[in-house]
Specification:
about 150 residues, mainly alpha, single chain, 7 helices, Cytochrome Bc1 Complex, Chain D, domain 2
Amino acid sequence: MQSKFALATAATLLSAGMAYADAHAASGDPAAGEAAFRACAACHNVVNDAGDVLVGRPNIRTGPNLYGVAGRLAGSVEDFRYSPGLQALNEAEVVWVEENFATYIQDPTGYIREAAGDDGLRGSMAAQRMRGDTDAVDLYAYLASLAAE
């Protein structure tokens, strides 16, 4: 029996051509997502291509830059050292769309194991996770809005 994680991943791979459009059609509330980002700011920032820090502190290297995460290939920020779990998602060509992003940030290790089909993989994002689907979807909408500006 396939789980919701595996089904979400399969749907993501099948709709990779539509991922970019989906990234900008987020259904969450960006304003609420801005508040939800506070839980992420200790490890992540959002720095645009010009080098401007849009959110968070400069020079944070614990987690990757989240600028452009909506619609981006998982584990693809240049010069960031990803966990084997995120590397497996990258190799599987998982693209961050609202549904799988929201699922991932609520249970990173669980999502990675289901999506990659390997119970030995782990995610390294352990400090904070979103506690609910609404916060996760709102966060995605906020991050998508920052890249759209």
